[in-house]
Design goal:
InterPro entries: Cyclic_Pdiesterase, Phosphoesterase_HXTX, RNA_CPDase
CATH architecture: Alpha-Beta Complex
Number of strands: 10
Helix content: 10-25%
Motif (HXTX 1): 42-45
Order of helices and strands: EHEEHEEEHEEEE
Strand order of the largest sheet: 3-1-9-10
Number of helices: 3
EC number: 3.1.4.58
Shape: globular
Largest sheet: 4 strands, antiparallel
Keywords: Hydrolase
CATH superfamily: Cyclic phosphodiesterase
Number of domains: 1
Radius of gyration: 16 Å
CATH topology: Cyclic Phosphodiesterase, Chain: A
Structural class: alpha+beta
GO molecular function: 2',3'-cyclic-nucleotide 3'-phosphodiesterase activity; RNA 2',3'-cyclic 3'-phosphodiesterase activity
Length: 175
């Protein structure tokens, strides 16, 4: 049976992707880790793993029924997780709407057989991978804000040595 590697996430505006790529290049040394491609920068809400087409369809139907207001997201925190080798950008205080949306999607995924991490949800955007050595983090004071007006289901495709994230469906949040 064919499966796809899927996840629910929030996309970043194109202009913000480019700003973050420039900031990352100015902030972190080339040896700090492997940069995530601008088009792949996102904030994961719920990782689903390998999913059958039937389960994917059921999860899309459930996602389409979510009614929740849009919210503003402030990116004003950064960190380094050495064990998985990730340098991330996140928020000091996650908005309630973000936490509720992730909780709903993670609960629906778990009920449909998609393993969910026992770790608490930590909203973040992965900037660098393979960052296993100590990384100097930037001083406080950086800040980006954007309106989250939709969320999407993405497929993770691996071909020719590269991973590409492809939006399969998107759903609006209430204005």
């Amino acid at each position: 049976m064919s499966t796809q590697r899927l996840f629910f996430a929030i996309s970043l505006p194109d202009a913000m992707q480019q700003q973050l790529v420039r900031w990352r290049a100015d902030t972190f040394s080339a040896e700090a880790g492997r940069p995530v491609a601008a088009a792949n920068l996102h904030l994961t809400l719920a990782f689903l793993g390998e999913v059958t087409p039937e389960t994917a369809q059921r999860l899309q139907t459930l996602a389409s029924r979510i009614v929740q207001p849009a919210f503003d997201l402030d990116l004003d925190d950064a960190g380094h997780w050495p064990r998985p080798g990730v340098v991330w950008l996140g928020c000091q205080r996650a908005p309630r709407g973000l936490l509720q949306l992730a909780s709903l999607l993670r609960a629906q995924a778990a009920r449909h057989g998609c393993h969910q991490s026992p770790q608490p949800f930590h909203p973040h955007i992965t900037l660098l991978r393979q960052a296993t050595q100590p990384v100097a983090l930037p001083p406080r004071g950086f800040h980006w804000r954007f309106r989250v007006a939709q969320f999407s289901l993405f497929a993770s495709d691996f071909a020719q040595g590269r991973t590409r994230y492809r939006a399969l469906a998107s759903w609006p949040l209430q204005p």
